[in-house]
Amino acid sequence: MDAGVLSVACMNASRIALVTGANQGLGRALVEGLAARMNRDDLVLLTGRSHQRVTDAAREVTQLPGTRARVEGRVLDVTGTDAIVHLAEDLQARYGGIDVVVSNAVARLLPEESQAERADEFIDVSNTATHGILRSFGPVLRPGGRLIVVASSLGTLGHLDPRLHHLFDGASLDQVEYAVESWRSAVHNNTAAEAGWPRWLNVPSKVAQVAAIRAVAAERREHDLAMDTLIAAVCPGMVDTATSRPWFSDYSQAQSPAAAAGAVLDLIFAEHADPALYGELVRFGKALPWHDGTPPVEQDRMLTP
Ligand SMILES: NC(=O)c1ccc[n+]([C@@H]2O[C@H](COP(=O)([O-])OP(=O)(O)OC[C@H]3O[C@@H](n4cnc5c(N)ncnc54)[C@H](OP(=O)(O)O)[C@@H]3O)[C@@H](O)[C@H]2O)c1
């Protein structure tokens, strides 16, 4: 691992990193970057929901010339809250904790699909899973660790109708979870639009992910910064992946997954946890103001970046 990085954590022990939804896209590029920047006795867990896909991807990353750390595939369907709990417990028991966790998975939506019909899966993969990861992995994050949630620039509060801001502004994690479940119920009951929820699932989902990070960060800030530990959400910018491709006709501005992973990896491997970025939504090394943004025009396609 780079000099000084995660330096407070177990000086002589090997480090463990885990990425969710990592068999393709940005998650896989993050695993590749972690495996290249960590040491030979470190371990990167490439997780995803399909045994075959994670096994194949882990083998391919292992064979890359730049890979230094060990890379293992692990099945983790993030919609299984118990599976998240058990994996965190297992890593705690085996290794005494974890150094890097990246919550990255997303359910792929297609423009022609009904957003409402996919709401349960989308919310489970992005939000219920994020809450579970924060609750289960937060306590086992070793000093000097990094806990990152991949959100997007749509994750600032201003992207929501002002009627909804009170649900997320200054909310605890339980309150964020309550807000997400209220949104889910409103989608099911066909009352979402009248309550101000946008039709595009990605907007409230990303705001809720950032709100969840802010909630946990507010509780841990002082202790984490004393230990050089960082908790943050990140916006990777527009990335050319199978999830984003159906939504854009112009790809000239899209980054490759490897390029997009670079800024996230720089945050992870920064020599110290920057107090200005702690608990914030970070894009290319800068915190995005929480109240920025305007609600989407409904005919716009609001998936990324
Ligand atoms: N692409 C962009 O322009 C962009 C912009 C801003 C933010 N982001 C964010 O970046 C992150 C990665 O997106 P991406 O574009 O790289 O997407 P992607 O290439 O489609 O990758 C999504 C990953 O999530 C996995 N996944 C889906 N459901 C899962 C589940 N139940 N359990 C575990 N894993 C599951 C997928 O696995 P399978 O292969 O099994 O489907 C896949 O590995 C997301 O949080 C996204 O919102 C992306």
Essential attributes:
single chain, 305 residues, alpha/beta, eight-stranded mixed beta sheet, binds NADP nicotinamide-adenine-dinucleotide phosphate
> Overall pLDDT, averaged?
93
Quote the distance from N terminus to C terminus: 30 Å
> Helix and strand string, N-terminal first?
EHEHEHEHEHHHHEHEE
| Main sheet attributes: strand count, strand direction, barrel closure | 8 strands, mixed
Describe the structure.
It is a single chain. 40% of the residues lie in helices and 14% in strands. The protein is an alpha/beta fold. Helix 4 packs antiparallel against helix 6 (173-188). It is globular. The two termini are 30 Å apart. The structure holds NADP nicotinamide-adenine-dinucleotide phosphate. NADP nicotinamide-adenine-dinucleotide phosphate is lined by residues 20-21, 23-27, 48-50, 53, 77-79, 104-108, 125, 150, 152, 236, 238-239, 241-244, 304-305.
Topology of this protein?
Layout: E1 16-19, H1 25-37, E2 43-48, H2 51-62, E3 70-75, H3 81-95, E4 98-103, H4 119-137, E5 141-150, H5 165-168, H6 173-188, H7 192-195, H8 202-226, E6 230-235, H9 257-269, E7 281-283, E8 286-288
Parallel strand pairs: 1-2, 1-4, 2-3, 4-5, 5-6, 6-7
Antiparallel strand pairs: 7-8
Helix pairs in contact: 1-9, 3-4, 4-6, 4-8, 6-8
Bound molecules: NADP nicotinamide-adenine-dinucleotide phosphate.
NADP nicotinamide-adenine-dinucleotide phosphate (NAP) binds next to helix 1.
